[in-house]
Amino acid sequence: MNATSDIVIVGGGIIGLAIAVELKLRGAAVTVLTRDFNEASTLAAAGMLAPHAERIPPSPMRDLCLWSRSLYPEWIDKLEQLTGVATGYWPCGILAPVYENEGKNEKFTSPHPPILPPPHPANLWLERDTIHVYQPGLGADVMGGWWYPEDGQVDNRALAQALRLAAQELGVELREGVIVEALEQQNCRVCGVRTSVGEFKANHYILATGAWASERLPLPVRPKKGQMVSVKIPEGNRQPLPLQRVLYGTDTYLVPRRDGRLLIGATSEDVGFAPDNTPAGIHALLARAIRLYPPLQDWSIQEYWWGFRPTTPDELPILGTSPCENLTLATGHYRNGILLAPVTALLLADLITSQKSEPLLSYFRYDRFYNQLSPSQTNLMFSSP
Asked: What's the whole-model pTM score?
């Protein structure tokens, strides 16, 4: 079988689907190839939109995250109108409690150092009395916390459903159950994607395979396993919900959903693609969550799950051009794939359809990891065997 499109996207997670929808809206014929839509890290995430709560320092990454968050309301409106799927987008704000032994200089799970004062005038420090009134039920050793009113959340599973349905409605060809065997290359161009069901050809190709990116190209992307658990907020406690905002604590976060679920996350483990939840992982999550918000200790456990975040050595995404002139890279989003989906789709669609390269993309080029190599050496590394 030989299939031809304007653009073939390898990868069916939120990044691949977001790019597919954007390109299709611009008139391109798009095919998405995926082994399994359900293995994407999108389905295993919490859906936080948290550039402020993550305490990302002033940097191109922070600019990219804030830009993408600003795109969310219009992007979600477009998806929901197109599909009728409610995505659970909720700009509820994020409260980041701090324990007595930490003070304002607490360390978060983010790899970035904390910034004081907070880098936005809307962010507020709440003292002990204020934070316990604002959010009843917090642990007794919470001595204050930061309030980030512009951060929020989206239901990651509903968003994945909306993107997949939007792609179908627009006429994107979605091919599931396809195992990609090789990106065939010649003269610094991809000339086809060899798969378990035949070859797919296109004018342009996009690699958006998340934690599996290094299976096809020598990119420094590896999986970071994240375990999560959810509990069920009792029926009598839902009017209103006892949590009206995300809690972002030390090494844990609690994400309330309007349907009564409370998501608890997440571990960050360098264990390769080792599957399954573990007693140690779930125990650690529950212990941290109960310390942060003790009322949940009596709520019913609903679900456990895990996923693999794609991370790079500097924990920044790889976006834009590659050594192959007709191959674009979109991987390594680590903890921020859901947050960065709108801006990734916008910038890469501009790059592919209009050859418009946003200057911000230059900070996320693949070759920042190969700056000791000449262009010819890098091209050779990316060539098919």
From this structure: 0.92
Within a 13 Å sphere around the CA of 268, how many CA atoms are in the beta-carbon half?
A: 12
Instruction: For residues 196 and 363, give the distance between their C-alpha atoms in angstroms, rounded to a whole number.
Output: 35
Look at the block and give the residue holding tokens 């809690």: 247
CATH 3.30.9.10 residue ranges for the chain: 94-149+223-309
pLDDT in tens, 295-321: 999 999 999 999 999 999 999 999 999
8 A C-beta contact, residue 316 and residue 364: yes
Tell me the CATH number for domain 94-149+223-309.
3.30.9.10
CATH code, 2-45+157-221+314-381: 3.50.50.60
The predicted structure's pLDDT at residue 109: 40
- Stretch 164-176: mean pLDDT: 98
- CA-to-CA separations, 382 to 101, 318, 324, 327, 377, in angstroms, rounded: 49, 15, 8, 11, 9
